[in-house]
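Continuing from the previous page...

OK, I double-checked the sequence for Prephenate dehydratase against my notes and this is the correct one:
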Amino acid sequence: MSLSIAHLGPTGTYAEAAALTYSQWLTQETGQQSILCSYPSIAQTLEAVANGQASLGVVPIENSLEGSVTMTMDALWRFDNLQIQQALILPIAHALISCASDLALIRAIYSHPQALAQCQGWIDKFLPLAQLVPTNATTEALQHLEQDRTAGAIASQRAAQLYNLPILACPINDYPDNHTRFLVVSLNPSSGGSHTSLAFSVPANIPGALAKLLQIFASRNINLSRIESRPTKRSLGEYLFFIDIEANANDPAIKSAIAELKLHTETLKIFGSYPVLPINSKNQNPTEKDILAQETFE
Ligand SMILES: O=C(O)C(=O)Cc1ccccc1
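Thanks. Re-ran it with the corrected sequence; updated structure tokens here:
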């Protein structure tokens, strides 16, 4: 039986490219076949996994230029029991796509907020007067182009090819070394691997609470590769903390750190241990056949 892999759609998003990469890797490693299903938002992608509608979900978590994808962090915290199976890092090259005959005719640029931010310098230089319009996904932006020839969209070259739309400039990201880390999540226990992710809330108004929690890791010589905060959304100034550790949760030092963390955190969520999937150039370019083997849940 095929597994279903949820991702942000419509078809042609970077998240779909990551899901295809993972699906090809899975078939290669285990013989397991999968089918991709697209969802209109990151939150709905993770909800589909949390309620069992999809077996796996692929979501962007962090970009090398813009930092954390806050929607993913918030949804990871909100839905219970999500476990990370893999992380995969994909290069991102953005294209300006439009039916305008000339760049100078573009009045509005549509895209996902991460893509707009990653191209801000290019937009300021070449289209300083254009209105920036955020969309749920890069490919949602393409829907505006055919009826409005003064509209531009930022999405991948692959998306332009899929929808048969003209590229006016590419790459337009402000820095050429642009990568996004995606997470593959499911309700199954995580597969184990070199990285562990967790998040916690701390009891309110305890001076030095975060410093004490970080000391739990420092005193055991545990290397943290990322620490991010998000508002709890309960009250101003209250935060959740997301931590990535470069070690497996079965490592005795991590086990004892987690046991101590439990004593001092309000809520602690452990997203599991997982490997980071190396990407090679062969599995970055899904074929037309892969793209047709998909379902849409929008
Ligand atoms: O909208 C998309 O295509 C996504 O997958 C989200 C995103 C946007 C910009 C960079 C990486 C991921």
